[in-house]
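Private note to self, pasted from the team thread so I don't lose it. Backbone tokens:
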């Protein structure tokens, strides 16, 4: 089993920055991917950013140029640096760890509001 815990969410003004963290613990594979999804009220989760096991990254069009995903391999920790935040980025952000199986965190709320 793998436990995934997100942190770093909160309230920020439009144009501000936040950095989300994602820590995986348990039976961690040395070769894994991580990623972030977000869920708006009443909607399904949508991919925000991902970093694959080989280090390749992928971003949703809505966040390209503003968000950056990174990972500390040895610590099974991932980050989502969010800059130039907009009100429409308000959502619950979920992290996943993908080894032989995929495990999800419980989410962290990001609210962008003045």
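Design output:
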């Amino acid at each position: 089993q793998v436990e995934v815990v997100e942190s770093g969410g909160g309230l920020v003004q439009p144009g501000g920055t936040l950095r989300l963290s994602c820590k995986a613990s348990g039976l961690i594979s040395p070769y894994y991917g991580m990623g972030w999804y977000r869920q708006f009220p009443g909607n399904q989760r949508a991919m925000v950013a991902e970093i694959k096991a080989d280090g390749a990254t992928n971003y949703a069009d809505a966040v390209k140029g503003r968000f950056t995903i990174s990972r500390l391999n040895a610590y099974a920790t991932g980050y989502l640096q969010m800059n130039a935040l907009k009100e429409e980025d308000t959502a619950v952000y979920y992290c996943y760890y993908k080894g032989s199986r995929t495990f999800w965190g419980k989410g962290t709320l990001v609210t962008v509001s003045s």
